[in-house]
Write a structure and sequence with these properties.
Number of domains of chain A: 1
Shape of chain A: globular
CATH architecture of chain A: Orthogonal Bundle
Shape of chain B: globular
CATH superfamily of chain A: ACP-like
Structural class of chain B: mainly alpha
Distance between the termini of chain A: 11 Å
CATH class of chain A: Mainly Alpha
Largest sheet of chain B: none
Oligomer: heterodimer
Distance between the termini of chain B: 16 Å
Structural class of chain A: mainly alpha
Helix content of chain B: 55-70%
Number of helices of chain B: 20
Largest sheet of chain A: none
Number of domains of chain B: 2
């Protein structure tokens, strides 16, 4: 799970936020804080599909399904 | 039927609730009762459109069952275009053809109540079933009850089949006192928002003052735009509170549609707070698939281009959904541009004071409403000329007339209520939970609102026309 968190955090900071030096904590709110928007969520879901072979449906791209890297990694793990 | 009338509030709703709890016992009986009462409600708005609602519900149900999802979407879109957009297209074509002295005739079909709302529910259902998000409707009657459900057919809120119809299986015989209180709070707040604020502002906004020859100057122009922004919010969120409350008394929870939209800091946040069920629909059924396909086609190196294009297309269609008029398309595209500017600003990683951010964004939202309220190109040109100060500050007599108007009093109440956060029924419920005096005061306010209703005056909720 730690490996997944590291990989996801790197993708968000480098490719989505374009801030490679930005550290994203595993319990940091991603959606409810406005850090990543609706488009970036779709982008992130494609990254997850390609790298973890797990599909996250468009209806699940919201803070109720996951809001932190920890929750997202757990969701990925539960579907692998 | 006018929703703000004694006929609807005291007769239709009261008799529906009484019969619902006395005559029906099982969830299945209750579902059939809701189906029948919803069709009765619909027939009171225009019985001639009953075949449209019934036919589209039946066709959507059958086509989903036969896995003909594309045909189902096409059929629903065709009905939407025919009733809502056909004449708009013909009028624009006639402008072009006038050079050739050709004139196409327009259709006088009328607009079925809630057409864009129930058609969007149908399209959402077809797409969800195709994506295997949940099982298709068990029978046609359950789907028909979902499609025609009277507390949401006029102007939403939109909900998925899964979220609404799943509640049909457990419709209660009795409600808890908390559920009843919560429903009544929502109804009372909705009535107060509509009758005391929105309709008072409406008297000014529909008066001769709000015409090209009726006002000039910076102050009156901004006054009218701010009044319109308040009216739209209080009218539409008032409708939602009223309908959510009625639905809650029937034991069905519908989704919230507003969360203090004018407290948003940026365009993306605004759309998470304003007409949430519609923005959620567009996000799931258009924006996300569109973004996904652009990202796959263009690659993640061109993610900015993909985002800006998806935002512009989605928001222009959100605008068009609101009505067949260029001002709505312009308003939608304007919001697409705002979303793109917001995304660009975010990428710069610059920070400004939150209050400054909020104020700048509020200014842009108001400019958007000015586009939305445009009655004609002439009116829009006049309004924008005045908004940007090209017509002076405003004549003294006009300013005095505005100041003395009841609409000003409504605005004086509306503005602090809007920014205090208690304008939403969910927030108000938390604030006054268990406070008997507050509940009594709210009940008295609702009674006053009902007494103030003049059945001779018809003030429909604004979003019913969309």
């Amino acid at each position: 799970m730690d490996e997944a968190i590291t990989k996801l955090a790197a993708y968000i900071s480098k490719d989505i936020l374009k801030q490679p030096s930005r550290v994203i904590r595993s319990d940091e709110a991603l959606i409810s804080s406005g850090l990543i928007d609706s488009f970036s969520l779709v982008d992130l879901s494609l990254f997850i599909e390609d790298n973890f072979n797990v599909r996250i449906d468009d209806t699940e791209l919201n803070k109720e399904t996951f809001d932190t890297l920890e929750q997202l990694a757990a969701l990925i793990q539960s579907r692998q | 039927m006018n929703l703000i009338s004694h006929e609807f509030l005291l007769l239709f709703v009261s008799l529906t609730l009484a019969a619902y709890y006395w005559l029906t016992k099982t969830p299945r009986q209750k579902m059939f009762f809701l189906l029948a009462i919803s069709y009765l409600f619909y027939s009171l708005a225009g019985w001639q459109f009953i075949p449209i609602l019934f036919g589209l519900s039946l066709a959507t149900y059958a086509l989903a069952k036969w896995n003909k999802f594309g045909w189902g979407v096409l059929l629903n879109l065709a009905a939407l275009i025919l009733f809502k957009y056909w004449n708009f297209g013909i009028e624009n074509l006639n402008l072009i053809f006038s050079l050739l002295h050709v004139k196409l005739s327009i259709l006088n079909l009328g607009l079925p109540l809630g057409l864009s709302f129930f058609i969007f529910k149908h399209i959402g259902y077809l797409y969800d079933i195709q994506q295997k998000r949940y099982s298709p409707a068990v029978d046609f009657w359950t789907f028909a009850a979902f499609s025609a459900y009277f507390p949401q057919i006029s102007a939403g809120p939109l909900s998925s089949y899964k979220d609404t119809a799943s509640q049909f299986n457990s419709l209660p015989n009795k409600l808890s006192s908390e559920q009843v209180t919560s429903g009544l709070i929502s109804i009372s707040l909705g009535l107060a928002k509509k009758i005391l604020i929105a309709d008072t502002l409406n008297t000014m906004l529909t008066s001769p003052v709000n015409t090209v020859n009726g006002f000039s100057g910076l102050i009156p122009a901004w006054y009218l735009v701010i009044a319109y922004a308040a009216q739209l919010y209080f009218d539409f969120s008032g409708y939602t509170d009223l309908m959510l409350g009625i639905s809650q008394l029937l034991g069905i929870r519908l989704p919230q549609n507003f969360n203090n939209p004018y407290l948003a800091n940026n365009p993306a946040e605004f759309w998470e707070r304003w007409h949430m069920s519609l923005s959620n629909w567009f996000r799931i059924y258009l924006f996300a698939p569109l973004s996904r396909s652009f990202l796959r086609k263009w690659g993640s190196e061109k993610r900015e281009q993909a985002q800006y294009t998806a935002n512009l297309i989605t928001m222009s269609l959100v605008g068009l959904w609101h009505g067949a008029g260029w001002n709505f398309i312009l308003w939608g595209a304007y919001h697409g541009i705002l979303l793109n500017l917001g995304a660009m600003w975010k990428r710069t990683n610059r920070q400004i004071h939150p209050l400054a951010e909020k104020s700048i964004f509020l200014f842009f939202i108001l400019i958007g409403w000015a586009l939305f309220m445009g009655q004609s190109a002439e009116y829009l040109t006049h309004l924008f000329t005045q908004l940007f100060g090209f017509g002076g500050l405003g004549a003294r007599d006009l300013l005095l007339n505005l100041f003395k108007n009841n609409a000003t009093l409504a605005l004086i109440f509306a503005i602090p209520i809007t920014f205090s956060g208690v304008a939403e029924s969910a927030n108000l419920e938390k604030q006054i939970h268990g406070n008997k005096f507050a509940l009594i005061a709210l009940g008295m306010l609702a009674a006053l609102c009902i007494l103030l209703i003049d059945d001779q005056i018809v003030n429909h909720f604004i979003y019913i026309q969309f």
